[in-house]
Design goal:
heterodimer, A: alpha/beta, 5-stranded parallel beta sheet, globular, B: alpha/beta, 4-stranded antiparallel beta sheet, 8 helices
Chain lengths: 458, 196
């Protein structure tokens, strides 16, 4: 029987198998940030164990960092301490840190790919559930808890059971105005937030084959929102072209050898998945969420479904919506374009294309937060900042920003925010804040119009 | 890690589905650099209102219910990988979480912190919620060695599943990290073979 992409990469990294237990899985790259690493460093210290392979670890500060005045000390004392602790730990253990002020600083899942750290066929982990992003390159990448961060520090390995496999196929052609974000929000709305639990997903079909790497990253990023530990897309020419020339990517002869290996990775024709779903691109339109989990999504032109479930009603009460409501033309006061889901250059290009020559509605606070220093530089180089500024959008410095209400960027209680981030949980963007997830284009249009609109109808 | 063998205690019912780790511990409380004290902010925005007064309707503020066992709705612990969620639950005093479904990362984090996740089927979960509703003081017996959950008041015995390796870890208080460090030679051999 043939092997899946996932099987091939997994099997290449199994150090040993415990009888009736988990595998010892070797980890090629370990990304760390300030929030989920300090207790792992302490765990090593308590055991008097060194970091085993510091050269395979890359650190950055992203969750806690302010997006204004990054050259000044962080005002919030706890955040300042946590970021300082990261620096201290990295210095002590000889780990490469792209901290505040470094030209490579940014959201951990944006900088890995853009620096060529992320490559096909790798195993990658990070103490962050959106590590699934890196699966866009055909790598096994997944989020881990802090105890596991300590395990990887100590041994460059993890004890993990091999998950089951699922394939999600989307064939056909996406309609104009339909973004990769809409594709993944559509999939999660159909499958639910727990459909992928215990599984690793592979996205296949012409829609993903025709996607850019940025689009693929957006899709794989949200695999965890359907419960899947990770999601992968087979590496192809688009992947090789993206990786080529990146700072830490293999070069010359080494790259050629790597590419010939990467070519062997895609799923064999006779491989069997534990479950499989197929969708038609023609059914997908611009999506928005109406509830408090990413599975509660509809096309902008649809109504909120009816459901007797108490938890469902609780979610709608929190959002201030009723069953059967349409959200088309719903007035909104906040727009956030950023996060590890949608803060890459392509996302800002898409948003700016719509915004060019227009002005945001006067009631709207519109925030543009690049995913990294390199993306910020690119925005300037392409002159996109002029478009955003002329339209009244505020461009901030790189970080996780308003995605998770951990830094200064928060949405006030009761306010609706059309957000390109990944989670619409209660309080995710600030206590009482109401998040409506959408693509960068839908978010940009909401900022201009001051309400939710269907971009395919404009 | 603390050892876990057997427990005979009451439970607290949290009949809500898809409880995500942002609810268990909101991100703004993740700024500590040690593992202590997260229990104070467990379910912060459900336990307290904006004025920091307890919300009476929330189950953890209801004096009728107590105990180290949390019974929760389907898909508990989804969302962020923050292990702080497991730390908050154990720091608050929970030793067992019962649900009809757990998110992967949360489940792993719980097991790595001596917090036992017990998965039951949806019908059993309904029966368990009913049992607590009719008698908040009804006792649960959790026996990890035998892999059983018993509620005498409703004549219920459930055999639950747990990975054999993880069971040994919990009973003996072993951490994965010790196992991995003891296998370093194998790991080095693997690296050498790959680089050859």
């Amino acid at each position: 029987m043939g092997k899946t992409l996932f099987d091939k990469v997994w099997d290449n990294h199994v150090v040993d198998q415990l009888e009736n237990g988990p595998d010892i899985l070797y980890i090629d790259k370990h990304l760390i940030h300030e929030v989920t690493s300090p207790q792992a460093f302490s765990a090593l210290k308590e055991r008097n164990v060194p970091v085993f392979r510091p050269q395979q670890i890359v650190a950055t500060a992203d969750h806690n960092v302010p997006t204004l005045n990054q050259h000044l000390p962080i005002t919030d004392e706890l955040s300042r301490n946590q970021v300082a602790k990261l620096r201290q730990n990295c210095e002590e253990h000889n780990i490469e840190l792209y901290g505040l002020g470094h030209p490579y600083q940014g959201i951990v899942h944006v900088i890995g790919p853009e620096l060529g750290i992320t490559q096909p066929g790798m195993t990658m982990v990070c103490g962050d559930s959106h590590t699934s992003t890196h699966g866009a390159f055909g790598s096994i990448a997944f989020g881990i808890g802090t105890s596991q961060v300590a395990q990887v520090f100590a041994s460059q390995c993890l004890l993990v059971g091999k998950p089951k496999s699922m394939r999600i196929v989307v064939n056909g052609e996406l309609k104009p105005g339909v973004h990769p974000k809409d594709v993944i929000l559509y999939i999660i709305s159909k499958l639910g937030t727990d459909s992928g639990t215990g599984y690793f997903a592979e996205y296949a079909g012409s829609v993903f084959e025709n996607m850019t790497m940025e689009g693929r990253m957006t899709v794989c990023n949200m695999s965890i929102e359907m419960g899947a530990r990770g999601g992968m897309i087979a590496p192809d020419k688009t992947t090789y072209e993206y990786v080529k020339g990146k700072e830490f990517a293999p070069k010359g002869k080494e790259l050629e050898t790597k590419i010939s290996h990467w070519k062997t990775l895609p799923t064999d024709d006779d491989a069997v998945f534990d479950k499989e779903y197929t969708f038609d691109a023609a059914d997908i339109g611009p999506m928005i969420t109406y509830g408090t989990n990413p599975g509660m999504g509809i096309r902008v032109d649809e109504q909120i479904p009816t459901d007797e479930n108490e938890s469902y009603q609780k979610a709608l009460d929190y959002m201030g919506f009723s069953q059967g409501d349409s959200l088309h033309k719903l007035p909104i006061n906040y727009v956030f374009i950023g996060s590890c889901t949608n803060s890459r250059i392509e996302d800002f290009r898409a948003a700016s294309k719509y915004i060019k020559g227009k002005k945001k509605a006067s009631n709207v606070n519109a925030l543009i937060v690049p995913g990294s220093q390199q993306v910020a530089k690119q925005i300037q180089a392409e002159g996109l900042h002029k478009i955003f500024e002329a339209a009244g959008f505020e461009i901030r410095q790189p970080g996780c920003s308003a995605c998770l209400a951990m830094n200064d960027d928060k949405i006030p209680a009761g306010e609706y925010c059309v957000s390109t981030s990944n989670r619409n949980f209660e309080g995710r963007q600030g206590p009482g804040a109401r998040t409506i997830l959408a693509s960068p284009m839908t978010a940009a249009a909401a900022a201009i119009e001051g309400k939710i609109v269907d971009i395919t109808q404009l | 890690m603390e050892k876990f063998t057997r427990l005979q205690q009451t439970a607290i019912p949290l009949d809500i589905e898809n409880v995500d780790t942002d609810q268990i511990i909101p991100a703004r409380f993740l700024k500590a650099t040690d593992r202590k004290g997260f229990g104070e902010n467990l379910f912060r925005d459900w336990r307290y209102n904006g004025d920091q007064n307890p919300i009476d309707s929330f189950i953890l503020n209801n004096k009728n219910y107590s105990g180290p066992i949390l019974v929760a709705g389907n898909n508990f612990g989804c969302g962020s990988s923050r292990e702080h969620a497991a730390w908050a639950l154990t720091d608050f005093g929970f030793k067992v979480v019962i649900s009809s479904f757990f998110a992967d990362i949360f489940k792993g984090n719980a097991l790595n912190n001596g917090l036992l996740p017990i998965q039951v089927n949806p019908e059993q979960l309904r029966l368990i919620f009913k049992a607590i509703e009719s008698d908040p003081k009804c006792e649960f017996v959790v026996d990890l060695e035998k892999q059983t959950l018993q509620i005498a008041s409703i004549d219920l015995i459930i055999n639950f599943e747990i990975n054999g390796y993880k069971k040994i870890c919990l009973i003996n208080g072993y951490d994965d990290i010790d196992y991995l460090i003891n296998n370093k030679q194998k790991i080095i051999e693997f690296e050498n073979k790959r680089n050859a």
